[in-house]
Design a protein that fits this description.
The chain is α/β, with parallel strands linked by helices. The protein has a domain of 239 residues: Rossmann fold, CATH 3.40.50.1820. It is 43% helix and 16% strand. The chain contains 17 helices and 10 strands. Helix 4 runs parallel beside helix 17 and helix 5 packs across helix 7. It is globular.
């Protein structure tokens, strides 16, 4: 009995030590975020152990666990018709609100889910709930794209899946089938899905054969570049839940089929050093010292290596491929983009990716809304259902839907 009285406080202290993280004072629901992050870390460590033992790929195990847990808390709706379909070989989930007597055509959103190009699904409740609420709130047809994931496929297959599904939906006969107004369509996505949405929008703007084009694009804390892993937000939030810097770098490595041994070189920007000739022409397109406002730059300094490893971009050309890194697109391409919404969170390594893209689009003459949240964190918008319900999730989701409602 005496041993138990000693062991229990020790276990409690160890648990508190594992859960506790120093967080900025303005973060919404800090203790809940710590618990969520601790859960993620414990699950990820277990998955990496399984990977190390060569029992399965850690991302396959992690995605299985996420989807299994996620299915336990789906929110249903009798008013929304939900069907699964295949658009040009790509699986999608379509959310259709009931027809109203005073309208013949509905607006629509093509939504591309996040998850580091490797996790989550259009079918799990986190995204099922989001798309259902969007369909209800906007009275819109929502098409959620179920692109293939890492490690099954790597870049550019996720991009091709998203592009094929979107182009199929934009065909006039398909839009007519779903009673969609061709002049009121948005392309949207969060995180890695925001990356794919931006890349798809850029490609659609170049396709001269398209008769229907999106009216809007809406990007939620998008990941848009792998050129500089030392922007102010990467430096400020390198250890922030839910997406520490090293995790984002590993997602990039998985996406472009790289080697984890390159992680350190990417973290210190050796792949875009001044002696890397292929990177020089892109440097001005991602000069955060001129693209970010002072409140984002704070007192951080650029990390630019004089001498790096040119072989990295030779081995991994996707690091400078605009289909993977839409922020590196030229000004002419950006000028063709539709009215844009970009949501960013202060406590997110990707904050500056979105802010820089918004600024470059503005300079190219595109109407842009940058919706910044000082107390929110990466991924928060999908966390709105117990036990992962955050006030930050509801706040960002409502702001996003409000913008779509006013502009679509």
């Amino acid at each position: 009995m005496r041993a138990a009285w000693v062991l229990l406080p020790a276990l409690a202290a160890l648990s508190a030590y594992y859960v506790y993280l120093p967080l900025p004072g303005a973060v919404s629901d800090p203790w809940k975020l710590m618990l969520l992050d601790a859960t993620f870390r414990a699950v990820q460590q277990t998955c990496h152990l399984i990977h190390y033992l060569r029992l399965s790929h850690h991302l396959i195990v992690l995605n299985y666990l996420i989807c299994t847990f996620d299915k336990l808390k789906s929110v249903s709706s009798e008013d929304i018709k939900i069907t699964d379909a295949v658009f040009d070989g790509v699986e999608v989930r379509v959310f259709e609100p009931p027809a109203k007597g005073d309208e013949s055509l509905k607006r629509s959103v093509v939504y591309i889910h996040g998850g580091g190009w490797a996790l989550a699904s259009a079918r799990t409740s986190l995204y099922n709930n989001l798309c259902r609420i969007m369909a209800e709130s906007l009275n819109a047809v929502v098409v959620s794209v179920e692109y293939r994931l890492v490690p099954e496929v790597c870049f550019p297959e996720q991009y091709h899946d998203a592009l094929r599904a979107t182009k199929h939906f934009l065909q006039p006969d398909v839009l007519a089938e779903y009673s969609v107004d061709p002049s009121r369509i948005a392309i949207s996505g969060d995180s890695a899905g925001g990356n794919l949405a931006a890349a798809v929008c850029q490609q659609l703007s170049k396709d001269e054969d398209l008769t229907v084009r999106p009216k809007l694009q809406a990007l939620i804390y998008p990941v848009l570049q792998a050129f500089d892993f030392n922007t102010p937000s990467y430096q400020q939030n390198m250890n922030m839940p839910v997406l520490p810097r090293y995790v984002m770098v590993n997602y990039w490595i998985d996406y472009i089929n790289g080697d984890y041994g390159l992680a350190h070189e990417l973290l210190v920007n050796n792949h875009t050093a001044l002696n890397v000739g292929r990177a020089l022409s892109f440097r001005a397109r991602l000069n955060w010292t001129s693209l970010l406002p002072p409140s984002f730059k704070k007192s951080y300094k650029p990390v630019v290596q004089a001498t790096g490893t040119a072989a990295i971009v030779e081995r991994l050309p996707a690091l400078l491929d605009v289909r993977a890194v839409p922020l590196l697109a030229d000004d002419a391409t950006l000028a063709r983009q539709p009215r844009t919404y970009v949501l960013t969170c202060e406590n997110d390594v990707l904050r500056d990716d979105g802010a820089m893209y918004a600024r470059r689009l503005e300079r190219a003459g595109v109407p842009v809304t940058l919706d910044h949240f000082h107390d929110c964190f990466h991924g928060c918008m999908i966390f709105t259902v117990w036990p992962t319900d955050f006030s930050a999730g509801v706040k960002t989701r409502d702001s996003y839907i409000k913008w779509l409602d006013e502009n679509l």
